[in-house]
Amino acid sequence: MESSELDKTLHKYIDAFLGVPAANDYDESGRRDGLAHFFRDIASSNIAPTALRDESAIIGEMQKRVAGSGRGTRSALQVSRLCGLLQQQNPGFNWWPVLYLLLECSTSAVLPKIAAAPSSYISNHHNRAHGSRYDSRTSPMLPPPQPGLHSQQRHDLGIPRYGTPSAIPHGMSEFAGGNTSALPAQAYSRGELGNPASNAPPPEEQSNAYLHRNLPTYDDVSEAALLQDLIYVLQGIDGTYVHWNSMTSSYTVNPEVKLSRPTRAMVTLLSELGGLTRDVQSYISEVERDGRLFEQSFCTELKVEMSTYYKLVSEIEGRLFKVPRTLRPGESQLGVTLRRMYCWTTEARQKLRLMATAIAKVQEGSGGGTVLSTISTLVDDGDPFIQSFAKRLLKTASAPFNHILVSWVTDGELVDPYKEFFIRERESRRDMFWSEKYTVASDMIPVHISGDMTRKIFQIGRSLNFLRVACDDAQWVAEGGPRTQLTGDISDTSDLEAFVYRSSSMVNERLMSVLRDKFDLMGHIEAIRRYLLFEQGDFALALMEVLENQMDRSGRSVMAHDLSAVLSSATRSSNAQHENPDRLSAIVLTFQEEGTKNRGWNEVTLTYNLSAPLSYVIPRSTMRQYFEVSHFLLRLRRIEHSLHTIWRHQMTESRAYLRSEELQRRKGTARDGDKQADPLRQAMRQSSIACSEMIQFFHQVQRYIALNVIEGAWGEFIESTKEEIDIDSWNDAHSKYVDVIHE
Q1: What's the pLDDT at 209?
Q2: Which of 147, 195, 280, 549 is the most buried (most CB within 10 A)?
Q3: Which pLDDT tens digit goes with each residue over 489-508?
């Protein structure tokens, strides 16, 4: 007779579970045919619950189970709400079978997979298969379950746990146990068993035997021995049958041990925990030996999670040989089975995988802020379990970072012994205290800190350090600084952002106030404009006159103290004498290069010496630009002054010549020299015109520089610094002002 599609499908599942049989093994083929007939009888039988098909009764029982489990009435109401949502989604659908299945699954024990069938059943069923057809009404039923087991639940709905006698397929009594023993067929074929009747279980065990207890097995090692081995493997220790394989970097079962495919697969899945445990413990040992601060903090949370994991392993080991007081149908006499161990360690497996993933990413990075960035990527995961676990890791791992950050933004001190913070301190010249002492390491910035927040954090700490060290304002930093604004937990990103923005405004306002009021920042910049750029006209004129008289002497005889006297004389001769003494003392007239042999006009320059802390704020490059512009304007002033001197001499000579001609004409002695006097008079006139034109040209150049360049740039600079800005923004505006003049 041709096989049906159901028979083909059943044979396919049996071969997938037990493996493909040998080609000439007719006994095994007949045994599998018997199994196929048995499963076909089960599939074609009418095993159905006798409960009333009422959705309201099922929902009520669900609520009663949930409330009785200790989860409270709130969970029971949640069940009612969920069932109502199901009915609203598809009002015409019959939800009773689905709800009944969910109710049964919530109380039924998971039966282990059938590995094989007893030979007694196969022989009986094979003989019966060629006789009469299966009659469900004459089939015996399973032995009744232990009294008291879920009896109350079954009584509430009137649902028999195993159905009526007519619902049990014929031949099931052989699986449940009887007067004969159900032993593996392969045991007889190998000759390992003698008389089957002599191996039958005792009568008291037969009365309580269940389906899975008498099922045959293909495992050479008992489940209890494998569980004992796995207890060691879960802790990263080799067992008797499961060993660490360094080639595959995983735990593998000894090839000489014969295990069925399901058992070997379950052992392999459980052994994964041992490999993950070894990786985590290896990383923890390495960090404890020579790890940095952020990594040590990260390992602290790993140790906590591993302690929880070891407690779980210890609990499983304690239940290993603890026989349950009451056994449900399908339960093992062992307190732990491979499948139970797998289910109990599911959450631990996920945690270990996450820890291993985080460790691998941390090791790929350069440490420091990259550790936090790695964990932050897991926090953004959509899985709530991964998200909550990563948040715990991030909270512990970020503790050193938060400690360094608090010290930086409240006291301006960088306490970073392992160079893990994204702000670095480096050796710099004293005059570069503000611009070069601290720098930002962009590769160390955690991902949860934005670019604008990074700049503000850097600015806050640098400003506090500058106030404390350079401005002698440590008292304000300690008593009235950002520490007074620290009220929340900066481990939370929103609280940190709010604190940073409040502190940034406070610190910048304080620093600019100290520089402007205490150290007269804008007053010195104004003095540079008036004296170095010669915007103070009377001072420039007096300086040129005194300096010219001094430079008419031999160049080698002009000394530095002579130039100081020149500057002092020019100051007293102009309105500069009413200037602030601190500003006047900063103006210096000196030679560009000390020790040069030819000390002429080209070597004289006017400089402005800023004192600390203003010299730390204004870069040396900016002051150099000031000096270059001042030297250029000084030369223009000298040319203008020289032209004026020449013009005065021309006027004096021209008038003297005209007076002499007038005298000669009156005496009558100039008749013969008129022809010679006309060319001379013409030359003097042309020379005077040329000198006047040059003076006019230099006047125009100076007016353009003073009005269009210097005054225009100065107005924009003043306008841009009226608002409350930080010192870096002020420096940018000042540099732009100087660049415009310099260009």
Answers
A1: 35
A2: 280
A3: 777 778 888 888 888 889 99
Res 132 pLDDT > 80: no
Confidence tier at 165 by pLDDT (50, 70, 90): very low
Whether 280 contacts 298, CB under 8 Å: no
Rounded to an integer, what is the distance from CA 739 to the centroid of its chain? 40
Best CA proximity match to 438, nearest among 405, 413, 407, 473? 413
38, amino acid identity: F
**Cα distance between residue 220 and residue 225, in whole Å:** 10
Give the CA dihedral 77, 81, 83, 89, nearest 10 degrees.
180
Nearest by Cα to 534 from 582, 576, 500, 499: 576
- As a 3-state breakdown, the chain gives helix, strand, coil percent values, each rounded to 5, of 65, 5, 30
Q: Report yes or no: 208 and 147 within 8 Å, Cβ to Cβ.
A: no
40 and 7 Cβ atoms separated by less than 8 Å: yes
Amino acid occupying residue 260:
S
DSSP states of 690-706:
HHHHHHHHHHHHHHIII
Alpha carbons 661 and 708: distance in angstroms, whole number: 47
Q: Can you state the angle between helices 399-411 and 493-513, rounded to 10 degrees?
A: 20
Please count the residues of the chain.
743
- For 381, other C-beta atoms within 10 Å of its C-beta total 13
Which own/partner pairs from 9-12 qualify as long-range (CB within 8 Å, at least 24 positions apart)?
Answer: 10/35, 10/36, 10/39, 10/40, 11/36
Pairing of strands 423-425, 438-440: antiparallel
For residue 274, pLDDT beyond 70: yes
- CA torsion, ordered 80, 81, 83, 86, to nearest 10 deg: 170
**3-state secondary structure labels for all residues of 627-687:** HHHHHHHHHHHHHHHHHHHHHHHHHHHHHHHHHHHHHHHHHCCCCCCHHHHHHHHHHHHHH
Q: What is the pLDDT of residues 651-687, one digit of tens each?
A: 887 778 777 777 777 776 555 555 555 777 778 788 8
Residue carrying structure tokens 């909270």: 395
